[in-house]
Amino acid sequence: MDFPEFTDTAALTTLEIEALRALHITLQDLRHEYDSALALTQRSYRMEENAELYTQGRALSIHPEALHQAGRLADRYERGIGLLAWRYASAATVLGTAVLERVVHGRPALTAARVTTLCNEPSLGELRECLNVTGLQIARDPWFREQHEEERQTLLAGVEGTIENATELGEGVPRDTEGVAAGRLTAFDREGADPLYEGVLKQLLVYADQFPMEISWFLKQSRTGALPHQART
Q: How far is Cα 131 from Cα 45, in angstroms, rounded to an integer?
């Protein structure tokens, strides 16, 4: 999804637009890179399995051993890109929600300090709180709002599951959910355990991608007077 033009409106500050654009463009590249990393890992596993089949019963296992090492390198790259993508996707979701919420409710622009802070990875609790925000698609058709609500609830359940999973990691990770919620997912990553973002990251990347367009859509509807009556109060 392309980044929309905001040059014809004063509803957003220059820094708000810059932050939204920077995170949006960053996620485009990281999303493609994560997909490539996943494909690389899957290819490495497949090549190793094939090598094991044709060398079965032979004295030397040089080929499958080399491919096993290659697979481990691919795993590390995939995990690193996954964590990087989570960092920026979670930030884009929290920043996007904050800006959309403020324009929908007619609140003052975010301060420069607030915008800068929201460009950093949020805690899991901050992300969960953000995903609990509802009713921001008031300029949209009912079918769109229903689809968005389903996506929001699915992602919220995924984040809550991630918090629960993290409590079982040990190794300095809090044992209670609120303790985990106070920290960042990337700080809880532990080698030897499945990535905490697994099963949630792809949904988060799609969800985070929508906010610039949703903000633009609301502002356009507002300027043309096409908003529901309650949105203009």
A: 35
* 24 Cβ contact partners less than 8 Å away, ≥ 6 residues apart: 3, 92, 209, 212
Does residue 125 sit in helix, strand or coil? helix
Distance, in Å, from the CA atom of 178 to the CA atom of 68, rounded to the nearest integer, reads 39
- The pTM score is 0.89
Q: Are 202 and 181 in contact (CB under 8 A)?
A: no
Q: Closest Cα to residue 194, out of 153, 223, 162, 224?
A: 162
| Other residues' Cβ atoms within 10 Å of the Cβ of residue 67 | 19
How do residues 40-92 score in pLDDT, each as one tens digit? 888 887 777 776 666 676 766 777 788 778 888 888 999 999 999 999 999 99
Could you give the C-alpha distances from 36 to 43, 44, 70, 74, in angstroms and in order? 10, 12, 15, 10
